[in-house]
């Protein structure tokens, strides 16, 4: 079997389609693309206020798309139209296949609400956005009778697939119309399906983002070949990246379990937390150590390591027990605190949070973009930490040793703490790109 045509990509939903050339459309748009257009004329896209606090999700409608319990969602590039090539003229486009407009019309006639959801992080300038909107005006002019809603994620935030921000907005808008979406009757069509090609296992798709999005949302998934051409599902696909289901099950909260997490009798001690950001260290402190009177020393709060060291010395001099809730990635960093404890004759224990960089990054995305409202009510919002914070720890990490001066080293395993609905959200595919690094 021959290999598929090599694909190119310019950070839109997909790489260039390998389908036979359809008729190219290369004319000036009949109606100039204007932000916040109020038109509902057939063949004219109406641009509404962008969604999100940072206005990063573009939002448009064609005609007056109805809110129905059945939703037919479609990717744009590589699914409805052929993928955007960086070498093509800005206004040049073609259908993915010539049957696409007919199939879109059929779905609308069968009682589906048509929704297009697309990643468009390449729209990094007003010029690129304007040209993209002008191209879409041409596309819409070619399907003047099909009502639909379009959402486009232009930044790497909660709207970017496979995260479900765009779907969450669709659900919200439909709910305002008194409509609850029936996920069992809805579906999504996209070309980033994680398909592999032939027995060699060579990648056919650039990524698996679209299939992951459908799994996160909870709707059926079809590739363009399956939906538009009626082909059988391709059983060969592989979803790369981290998913929480890969974590070991039923690990104890800490090891070894032969000694208690906290001393049975009140005693002064210094505890060093060690591990990547976003592994629940601060929550662990609040749950287990704060109720026992341990002082919390944290560089995010104090600002510098020097201030943390001074705070530890002050606490030890006062006879207080305390926790240093930093990453404490290497022996030289930990030495500052161990030397102080030795000076004041205070025992030191290490709490090693064992989660991987992939789990830490996943938690970072979850708490920045995906916290359910129930969590937001009880925890402050947090900004996304840069990847460099995780890579720096990974590159400089030294596993703690008893020889450094620790009385004990306990391993703390990640255990999700939350309601079942919160856990379902955490168990989604959460990525800003197919590959973290």
From TrEMBL:
Pfam families: AAA_33 (PF13671), PNK3P (PF08645). One of its GO terms (biological process) is DNA repair. Residues 27-42 have a biased composition (Polar residues). Residues 1-43 are annotated as: Disordered. GO terms for molecular function: ATP-dependent polydeoxyribonucleotide 5'-hydroxyl-kinase activity; double-stranded DNA binding; polynucleotide 3'-phosphatase activity. It comes from the Eukaryota. NCBIfam families: DNA-3'-Pase, HAD-SF-IIIA. This is PNK3P-domain-containing protein. It comes from Mycena chlorophos (Agaric fungus).
């Amino acid at each position: 079997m021959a290999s598929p045509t090599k694909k190119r990509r310019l950070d839109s939903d997909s790489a260039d389609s390998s389908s036979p050339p359809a008729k190219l459309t290369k004319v000036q748009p009949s109606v100039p693309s204007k932000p916040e257009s109020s038109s509902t004329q057939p063949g004219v896209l109406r641009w509404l206020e962008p969604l999100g606090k940072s206005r990063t999700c573009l939002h448009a409608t064609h005609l007056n798309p109805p809110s129905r319990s059945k939703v037919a969602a479609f990717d744009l590039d590589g699914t409805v139209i052929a993928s955007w090539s960086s070498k093509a003229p800005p206004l040049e486009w073609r259908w993915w296949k010539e049957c696409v407009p007919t199939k879109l019309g059929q779905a609308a006639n069968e009682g589906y609400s048509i929704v297009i959801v697309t990643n468009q992080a390449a729209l990094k300038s007003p010029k690129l956005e304007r040209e993209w909107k002008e191209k879409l005006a041409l596309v819409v002019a070619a399907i003047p009778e099909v009502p639909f809603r379009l959402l486009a994620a232009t930044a790497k935030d909660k709207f970017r697939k496979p995260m479900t921000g765009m779907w969450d907005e669709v659900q919200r808008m439909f709910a305002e119309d008194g409509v609850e979406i029936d996920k069992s009757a809805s579906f999504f069509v996209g070309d980033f399906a994680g398909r592999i090609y032939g027995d060699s296992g060579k990648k056919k798709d650039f990524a698996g983002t679209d299939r992951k999005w459908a799994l996160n949302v909870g709707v059926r998934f079809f590739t363009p070949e399956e939906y538009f051409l009626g082909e059988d599902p391709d059983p060969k696909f592989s979803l790369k990246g981290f998913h929480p289901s890969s974590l070991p099950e039923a690990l104890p909260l800490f090891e070894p379990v032969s000694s208690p997490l906290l001393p049975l009798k009140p005693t002064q001690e210094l505890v060093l937390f060690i591990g990547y950001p976003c592994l629940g260290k601060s929550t662990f402190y609040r749950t287990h150590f704060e109720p026992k009177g341990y002082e919390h020393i944290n560089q995010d709060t104090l600002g510098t390591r020097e201030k943390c060291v001074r705070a530890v010395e002050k606490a030890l001099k006062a006879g207080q027990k305390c926790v240093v809730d930093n990453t404490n990635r290497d022996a030289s960093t930990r030495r500052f605190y161990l030397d102080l404890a030795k000076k004041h004759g205070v025992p030191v224990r290490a709490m090693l949070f064992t989660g991987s960089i992939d789990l830490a990054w996943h938690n970072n995305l979850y708490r920045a973009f995906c916290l359910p409202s129930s969590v937001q009510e009880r925890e402050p919002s947090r900004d996304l930490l840069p990847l460099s914070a995780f890579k720096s720890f990974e590159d400089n990490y030294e596993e703690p040793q008893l020889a450094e001066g620790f009385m004990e080293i306990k391993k703390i395993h990640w255990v999700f703490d939350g309601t079942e609905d919160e856990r379902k959200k955490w168990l989604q595919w959460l990525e800003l790109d197919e590959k973290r690094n």
